[in-house]
From TrEMBL:
Its EC number is 3.5.3.13. GO terms for cellular component: cytosol. This is Formimidoylglutamate deiminase. SUPFAM superfamilies: Composite domain of metallo-dependent hydrolases, Metallo-dependent hydrolases. Its cofactor is Zn(2+). Keywords: Hydrolase, Metal-binding, Zinc. One of its GO terms (molecular function) is formimidoylglutamate deiminase activity. InterPro entries: Amidohydro-rel (IPR006680), HutF (IPR010252), HutF-like_N (IPR055156), Metal-dep_hydrolase_composite (IPR011059), Metal_Hydrolase (IPR032466), Metallo-dep_hydrolases (IPR051607). Residues 1-45 form the Formimidoylglutamate deiminase N-terminal domain. PANTHER family: AMIDOHYDROLASE-RELATED DOMAIN-CONTAINING PROTEIN, GUANINE DEAMINASE.
């Protein structure tokens, strides 16, 4: 049992002062407000719930910074994807596990308590299936087990290179499955995640480019309890190709053909009409936003103001994992809206804190997208992050939150997942061991890249 005392804590109904949290058996067993610290309490300035990172491709952490060299012509998502394919073809299972563990250490040090791993690096380097079809999925599970981060595993079904069932290209050979092969992979993934406490297994049809309507329907009939995530409308070319194939834009096609519910998370959904935006919100599908990656790839700007006014929910993910940070993602999300609307404090309620609105929305929506629980409340998972303000300025509540997100005014200090402290003084307890293995693996991969 662990007891934490905080000068301030963000509870589901708002900020509270002088709060004691008791963590027991992976859960929050008691919360007291307006009480002094007792002997043996861990003392902290600010306590928050951890946040879910709802969209990650772990292997891409290894190529962070390697695609920032301009080519002979203008660069785009599609030229970046070519570099990504080259990198994806190089690594073996042990190397991917090492990269994933490094990434998950960084996520925990940033205050993320759970990851939604959109996992599509399935096969051996020549494209043949491993004897154990879930070999690579098991490596993701092992990296989560080693680092202590919560996991919602989303095995990806990827069968085609373009709309209408186009034949996959050579660079995609490690991703490709038919329905029978994917069903076997999903069964193996479920067995692997069953060894992790509070884990969830869903599915991820990669995109409407990569699955046919018949395959999308068949995937939903498979046995799984978790959510359904799909990339959609990230690029203008994707929208144009979808219209040429079906006569409809991607999100409109999903709304008309896939019976979207709150079980679905639409990743990116960048290029939508206002009608699509409102209909998506009304359907309950969660927007999986990846602001840093979307900016890095030049994707565009999500129609957040319309979506949120229509009652939509959102969460954030680090996607390509070029940079890991809660404040970084939320700040980029708000700044993208400011540039688009040429206004300030776009994603906030009248008279309210922008940072608080963003943080609360991402905690609630991110957990829902990964079918996990969230919040500092009795009975909820003991997933807690402490902040340490850089300076004792006497700030309280939303002022601390706004400073954390927009001014680097506070640092992540400690992180508990399931009541186990994984991060102390900003450093994961396995940081050195994991980093040493990561460095060795990256040197091997760079020599062959």
């Amino acid at each position: 049992m662990t007891t934490l005392h905080a000068k301030q804590a963000l509870l589901p109904d708002g900020w509270a002062n002088d709060v004691r949290l008791t963590l027991k058996d992976r859960r929050i067993s008691a919360i007291e407000q307006g009480v002094e610290a007792k002997v043996g309490d861990e003392r902290h300035d600010v306590l928050l719930p951890t946040m879910a990172n709802l969209h990650s491709h772990a292997f891409q952490r290894g190529m962070a910074g390697l695609a920032e060299l301009r080519g002979p012509d203008s660069d785009s998502f599609w030229s970046w994807r070519t570099v990504m394919y080259r990198f994806a073809l190089t690594m073996n299972p042990e190397q991917m596990q090492a990269i994933a563990a490094q990434l998950y250490v960084e996520m925990l040090e940033a205050g993320f308590g759970r990851v939604g791993e959109f996992h599509y690096l399935h096969h051996d380097r020549d494209g043949s299936a491993f004897t154990n079809r879930a070999e690579m999925a098991e490596r993701i599970v092992a990296a989560c087990d080693e680092t202590g981060i919560g996991l919602t595993l989303l095995p990806v079904f990827y069968a085609h290179s373009g709309f209408g069932g186009q034949v996959p290209n050579e660079g995609q050979r490690r991703f490709i499955n038919d329905l029978d092969g994917f069903a076997a992979l999903l069964d193996g993934a479920k067995k692997a995640t069953s060894r992790l406490p509070c884990s969830v297994t869903g599915i991820a049809p990669h995109s409407l480019r990569a699955v046919t309507p018949e395959q999308l329907s068949a995937l939903q009939q498979l046995s799984f309890d978790g959510p359904i995530h799909i990339h959609v409308a990230e690029q203008v070319k994707e929208v144009e190709d979808c219209v040429a194939w079906s006569g409809k834009r991607p999100v409109a096609w999903l709304l008309d053909n896939a019976a979207l519910t709150d079980r679905w998370c639409l990743i990116h959904a960048t290029h939508m009409t206002e009608d699509e935006t409102v209909r998506m919100a009304k359907a309950g599908a969660i927007a999986g936003l990846c602001p840093i990656t979307e900016a890095n790839l030049g994707d565009g700007t999500f129609n957040a103001e319309v979506f949120l006014k229509a009652g939509g929910r959102f969460g954030v993910g680090s996607d390509s994992n070029i940079l890991i940070g809660i404040a970084d993602e939320l700040r980029q999300l708000e700044y993208s809206q400011r540039l688009s609307h040429r206004a300030r404090n776009v994603l906030a309620l009248p008279g309210g804190s922008t940072g608080r609105y963003l943080f609360d929305g991402a905690v609630i929506g991110g957990a829902a997208a990964l079918m996990a629980e969230s919040g500092l409340a009795v009975g909820k998972p003991a997933d807690v992050v402490s902040l340490k303000p850089r300076h004792d300025l006497g700030l309280s509540g939303d002022q601390v939150m706004d400073g954390f997100i927009f001014a680097n005014g506070a640092l992540v200090d400690c992180v508990w997942v399931g009541g186990v402290k994984q991060v102390e003084a900003g450093r994961h307890k396995a940081r050195e061991k994991v980093a040493a293995r990561f460095v060795g693996v990256m040197r091997e991969l760079m020599a062959a890249f």
